[in-house]
Amino acid sequence: MMKKVIFVLLLLIIGIIVKAQANIVVADKSDRTTIQVADLQNHISAHINRYYVGFIINEAARVVVKNVITYEVIITQGTTTDTLVYDENSNFIRNISQKDTLKTAQKKK
Fold first, then answer.
1. CA 75, CA 72: separation in Å to the nearest integer?
2. For residues 92 and 86, is the Cβ–Cβ distance under 8 A?
3. Coil, strand or helix: which one is 31?
4. Higher-scoring residue by pLDDT: 1, 105
5. Closest-CA residue to 97 (of 30, 43, 51, 31)
6. Residue 97: its pLDDT value, please?
7. Domain ranges in the chain?
8. Residue 35 contacts residue 5 (beta carbons within 8 Å)
9. Residue 18 has pLDDT above 70, yes or no
10. For the residues 34-45, what does the mean pLDDT come to?
């Protein structure tokens, strides 16, 4: 009789553990793929050339999060670095500005 009670308790504990693991929320993973600057969509390049005159494109990436595609383009001019974000249709979404990144880092030393 005691063995049956222990066995039932063991099954209950295993069931609780399995259910708890199923409820764990995993952070969304993003798929980030570096792309060549020459492979950027024409609208993105045109936007940068028009509104960010003098900036140089350092890096471009295609990012997929929850099946939503965006493009991130890192541009620099002197000590100013900006990250421009575009949607999959080449529409400008936002600018993540990191002005004077080199000066700020040097002041902290």
1. 10
2. yes
3. strand
4. 1
5. 51
6. 80
7. 28-98
8. no
9. no
10. 93
Task: Name the DSSP letter for residue 109.
Answer: -
Please name the fold of domain 28-98.
Nuclear Transport Factor 2; Chain: A, (3.10.450)
Write out pLDDT tens, residues 46-98: 999 999 999 999 999 999 998 899 999 999 998 889 999 999 999 999 998 87
Residue 94 in contact with residue 85, Cβ under 8 Å? yes
Residues 81 and 70: beta-carbon distance below 8 Å: no
User: The tokens of 57 are what?
Assistant: 């494109």
DSSP code for 24: P
Tokens representing 75? Answer: 């541009």
Residue in the block written with tokens 């350092």: 58
What residues contact 72, with CB distance under 8 A and at least 6 apart? 60, 61, 63, 83, 84, 85, 86
Task: Tell me the three state secondary structure of residue 66.
Answer: coil
